[in-house]
């Protein structure tokens, strides 16, 4: 088998699907992710919901005493608004809550940080769109995929990998996991035939008897 079919050369195999891809962002700078996304097709950047919830909790403790059980309901209410696509609505509600509580200076820092985060990342917080299209919005499914595709194979006892070999194995595992292996294998056999036969003759014409 020639792994270069999937990694190098002018001819590359791609799965037939043209579905958009959702890229989950945690703490890595969004600008770096956007630069990478611009080089690829159909990539939508979604900020990890768990990371956003951390900002909501910091805002909650500006308005609730430590250990106040009602803080959880407060966070849940605003989280539901975010999931419905109400980013600006949530930011406005947080600012209004800070004004109503007459918070000043460092006492409202958690709220200010949350508002700034929500407004600056608004284009990547469209959870309503993501959920409607079945895209992941939190870490679990991504981390499980990393373990299934990479760790379960590359981290076995005694394994030693070079970069090219590891990449070829991971790509094959991804093709198989996505249900595209049969399509890929038919393409692979076609490329092997071209490499071993037509490519060796002038104008790629195989002589006939």
Description:
- The chain is mostly helical.
- 57% of the residues lie in helices and 5% in strands.
- It has helices spanning 4-7, 30-37, 49-63, 70-83, 87-100, 109-120, 127-132, 139-154, 163-177, 181-196; strands at residues 21-25, 43-47.
- The radius of gyration is 25 Å and the shape is elongated.
Give a quick rundown of the structure:
The radius of gyration is 25 Å and the shape is elongated. Helix content is 57%, strand content 5%. The chain is built from ten helices and two strands.
Topology (SSEs and partners):
Blueprint: H1 4-7, E1 21-25, H2 30-37, E2 43-47, H3 49-63, H4 70-83, H5 87-100, H6 109-120, H7 127-132, H8 139-154, H9 163-177, H10 181-196
Parallel strand pairs: 1-2
Helix pairs in contact: 3-4, 3-6, 5-6, 8-9
Give the averaged pLDDT, no decimals. Answer: 83
Range of helix content: 55-70%
The radius of gyration computed from the alpha-carbon positions, rounded to a whole number of angstroms, is 25 Å
Q: What is the 3D form? A: elongated
Strand order across the biggest sheet?
Answer: 1-2
Instruction: Report on the biggest sheet.
Output: 2 strands, parallel
Structural class by secondary-structure content: mainly alpha
Q: Low-confidence runs (pLDDT<50, min 5 residues)?
A: 7-11
SSE arrangement, N to C: HEHEHHHHHHHH
Tally of alpha and pi helices: 10
User: Span from first to last CA?
Assistant: 30 Å
How many distinct beta strands?
2
């Amino acid at each position: 088998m020639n792994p270069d079919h999937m990694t190098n050369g002018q001819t590359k195999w791609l799965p037939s699907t043209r579905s958009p891809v959702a890229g989950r962002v945690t703490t890595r700078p969004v600008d770096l992710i956007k630069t990478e996304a611009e080089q690829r097709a159909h990539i939508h950047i979604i900020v990890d919901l768990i990371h956003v919830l951390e900002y909501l909790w910091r805002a909650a403790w500006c308005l609730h005493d430590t250990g106040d059980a009602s803080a959880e309901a407060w966070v849940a209410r605003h989280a539901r608004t975010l999931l419905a696509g109400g980013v600006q609505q949530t930011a406005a509600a947080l600012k209004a809550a800070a004004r109503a509580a007459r918070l000043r200076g460092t006492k409202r820092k958690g709220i200010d940080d949350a508002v700034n985060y929500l407004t600056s990342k608004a284009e990547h917080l469209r959870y309503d769109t993501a959920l409607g299209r079945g895209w992941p919005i939190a870490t679990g499914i991504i981390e499980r995929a990393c373990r299934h595709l990479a760790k379960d194979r590359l981290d076995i006892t005694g394994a030693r990998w070079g970069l090219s070999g590891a990449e070829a194995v991971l790509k094959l595992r991804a093709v198989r996991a996505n249900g595209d292996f049969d399509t890929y294998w038919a393409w692979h056999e076609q490329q092997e035939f071209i490499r071993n036969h037509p490519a060796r003759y002038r104008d790629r014409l195989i002589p006939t008897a």
